[in-house]
Specification:
The structure is a single chain. A two-stranded antiparallel sheet has the order 1-2. It is extended and about 65 Å long. By secondary structure, the chain is mainly alpha-helical. The two termini are about 45 Å apart. It is about 60% helix and about 5% strand. It contains seven helices and four strands; from the N terminus they run H-H-E-E-H-H-H-H-H-E-E. Strand 3 and strand 4 form a beta hairpin.
Amino acid sequence: MLVTSLGFTAVVAAMTLLGAVRRGGRHGARDFRNTRKGWLYSAPAVLIFAAFVIVPTFYTFYVSLWKWNVLNPSLSVYKGLGNYRALFTATDPSFGSSLWHSLYFCGAMVIGGTAISLALALLLQRGGRAVNASRLAIYLPNATPLIATSLIWTWIRWPSSPSRSSASVAPTGPTTRVWPRRRRLLRCR
């Protein structure tokens, strides 16, 4: 994802600087693309992006060219592209497998996430009887904190779980629970 965002940002910046981005219509007082005001408006975002994405990316590449000593960087030894050569020519398949799985995961997340997001947006825009229920089902995971939800489900599924006993509400022995729509008693240990 980082490489994709860097590539997209670089292409947009190059097209903007070269003047290739032209939109039809009226270019009036609100066209800030070729003015100092436009660059001043975008400067904070560009500086933040550079400070937290571009500079760390280049620094990581710089460090990857060295046999880096974390405790004392002055003792680091320059290896050049030898680190990368060792990675790609190693007989251990762990790097190749990890690289393939990472690329597969990123591709699936980008394509799958975009498809699911588009489908949900179309579902919510369409309307109908189930629109409120679908909006609730989509928004509820964002509104409910993950830790609180997992603790509640842990308490429901396993009444004698460590999280419940640490809250000092765990019963001392086996408990019985009547589940809704089921009249027989279940033994929970």
